[in-house]
């Protein structure tokens, strides 16, 4: 049997550092879909402990680099949060989400014991090295939280690498680039410059010889997208003329305020700061606070706002990739598929299903990502604008080695190989997705108007219902049907049947203490009516206080 050097936890050092990052007794933290997320000022102890956890995860995985991103994405500026990134640039393995929650909630007195116990049960070899790369967005609480994280790393003797103020997708990129360095699967140079170079080079190749791309307005949500897109414009030069708006990263309260991808998606309207700026038909897009979500939109000739959300991006991109695979002579060798959630607009599902396989999975990027891995090329987008395209390892190899038989095949193949480089395959990336959209528009010679007319969205409405206990709501069939409370699902279906094109579903949110109701129908008024009827049903069924029943619920 191979002997194993046993190293003990440096308990004295950890205790010393931990004393500087005490946990407030009344607080409870939970590692959910979006990692830990709450008010930034209460997260100090969590970041310290996450530092230790990230180091242990690295040791558990033989010293592979783990990522840590400090952000609260599209949430208000006073919020903050933290997410861990696994070695292939993916989200943290589910079992460790529970370990993270346990460690974060241990009292100050128990903390060392809980840690010791964890090291034992998770069978972590402490003699292994530990490496962690970390970044943060522009939030004012970020700097202090980075310090707490560094103390966690120092307490356990981990090697930390500071990626500075950067986007979530860049941290994912760095993790994958670091862990594949020097291997056959090398993902790219492990630096921010490497990221810009890889992507911009692919973009230039993909649009070379195409008509000049018209100007694009980019709303940076007053967040980290601003400095990052600005740097990217230097690499892109003339190939993509960009105007940046909402770049006030130092203005208190500006982050995500009346701007950004989430604002656009939930309000279905233009950020006020863009009023008067946009010519009819001109494309604009919004990032969210950590630049992993993207929404496109334009104002039509009549002055109406038109939104091109994650579903429209998926439709545009998937059809393009299917075409390229066919043109490259790989139609029956490379299976392209799309993954959506129940929130995908019914019209998008119809459009896509007529062209390629479409799968529906529960909400949350990790479900989409895993399902997309089942295809040779898997396109996934949430309606809210988070998504990417995954090329399986064998497909990447096939694309690299396939011998084209005609010049047309060769061109299509070259485009596919450049897409592999352009797309950030670790996670949704607003910047990479934006360049991808621009490539497809350039190739198809589509304006935003033509893109939008691929299909017409069904009017839809999302309603939050505050209930005493959202945990009584349980779903099946990728969250499209309720199994509990018993008897509610048939009532929802009965209501939906009364409306032309009616569809509605109910699920508990994974990130907020609410139950969400979604509905769509052919007419706007009917989508609204259906949503408010179902919301009323849910509210009453869950025992909501009749004196506080929202007026709009029917
Ligand atoms: C309807 C909706 O937009 N839900 C969002 C939201 O999840 P909920 O579980 O619905 O709260 O936050 C998730 C994490 O950011 C995101 O993946 C998801 O799309
Ligand atoms: Mg985000």
Automatic annotation (TrEMBL):
Substrate binds at residues 382-384, 507-511, 516. Residues 463-535 form the Alpha-D-phosphohexomutase C-terminal domain. Residues 207-294, 309-446 form the Phosphoacetylglucosamine mutase AMG1 domain. The keyword Magnesium applies. Its EC number is 5.4.2.3. InterPro entries: A-D-PHexomutase_a/b/a-I, A-D-PHexomutase_a/b/a-I/II/III, A-D-PHexomutase_C, A-D-PHexomutase_C_sf, A-D-PHexomutase_CS, AMG1_II, AMG1_III, PAGM. Keywords: Carbohydrate metabolism, Cell wall biogenesis/degradation, Isomerase, Magnesium, Metal-binding, Phosphoprotein. Belongs to the phosphohexose mutase family. This is Phosphoacetylglucosamine mutase.
